[in-house]
Design goal:
The chain has one domain: 2-enoyl-CoA Hydratase, Chain A, domain 1 (Alpha-Beta Complex). It is globular, with a radius of gyration of 18 Å. The strands form 2 sheets. The protein has a 7-stranded mixed β-sheet, with helices on both faces. Helix content is about 45%, strand content about 15%. A hairpin with a 7-residue loop joins strand 1 and strand 2. With about 280 residues, the protein is α/β, with parallel strands linked by helices.
């Protein structure tokens, strides 16, 4: 087993090669796994590694931070540090570019969700080929409308195909927290498993897929991908997200959450859906 980290000053993502064919990408930005420009850069670096490697056949995304899979964006970071980053190979900005490339990657991708998958965490879940959630500990949400924003990582394009238009609108417009059982019932994730069984299940599945022929994996995925939304839909969502951040409604909403303890460990982060309802006007 070998471990590498994204080649930046502070590693917020760790890549562990369980074998040549099976990699783990572990998100590790305590205390609450927010995603800022630095993490986006590191996701880009990981994607370059995955695309360049001829042997990897399966990648599992998980978290080292208790209570959080991947959280919302870092609202204490400078927005221009994100918006000034160059476009990726798809022509999209770096975050939607990473998500689009993940879905097309000739490698099976699996999200192992324990803790909150808020905003960005939901978006990487939707970009993965499969997702498995802790029945007791997973919380998934697209929270953005509740604070006056539009989501930037493509859930408007992906969710309707996955769970249907009506349920997609329920998820997006309610901004509610969704537990593992409800996510499974809606088809948001493949399965919700007892937390004690989650790791072993994902490990067994990933190890099994890693034994199969990469050409067969890649071409099967390529043919399934004919139903993907076009990149222009992901780009439109990103543009709307950035525009929404400049509106007073979003700025006021984020300030109201911050005043209650948002962006730090505690009840607001743990029950974000509840507090979005409290600040709504």
């Amino acid at each position: 087993m070998t471990t590498m980290v994204a080649p930046t000053t502070t590693a917020q993502i760790r890549v562990t090669r369980r074998s040549a064919a099976y990699w783990r990408v572990t998100i590790d930005n305590p205390p609450i796994n927010v995603m800022g420009p630095e993490m986006v850069k590191q996701f880009q670096e990981v994607m370059h590694e995955l695309e360049a490697d001829e042997d990897v056949r399966v990648v599992v995304f998980d978290s080292a931070v208790d209570g959080y899979f991947l959280n919302h964006s870092d609202f204490l970071a400078k927005l221009e540090d994100l918006t000034s980053m160059p476009e990726g190979p798809t022509g999209l900005p770096p975050w939607p570019d990473f998500l689009a490339r993940l879905t097309r990657l000739p490698v099976a991708s699996i999200a192992l969700i324990r803790g909150r998958a808020t905003g960005n965490g939901s978006e990487i879940t939707l970009a993965c080929d499969m997702s498995f959630a802790s029945r007791e500990k997973a919380i998934i949400s697209q929270w953005e409308v509740g604070v006056g924003m539009v989501a930037g990582g493509g859930p408007m394009a992906r969710l309707p195909q996955l769970i249907g238009r009506n349920r997609a609108l329920e998820v997006l417009l309610s901004s509610e927290d969704i537990g593992g059982d409800q996510a499974e019932a809606y088809g948001y994730v493949n399965r919700a498993l007892p937390d004690a069984d989650l790791d072993a299940f994902v490990e067994t599945l990933a190890t099994r897929i890693a034994k199969f022929d990469k050409w067969a994996i890649a071409n099967t995925k390529r043919l399934v991908n004919t139903s993907l939304p076009p990149d222009v839909e992901l780009g439109a969502g990103w543009d709307a997200c950035i525009a929404s951040l400049g509106r007073s409604a979003a700025q006021d909403g984020i300030k109201a959450l911050m005043a209650r303890g948002f962006h730090q460990p505690g009840d607001v982060e743990n029950r974000l859906g509840y507090y979005l309802g409290q600040i709504a006007r």
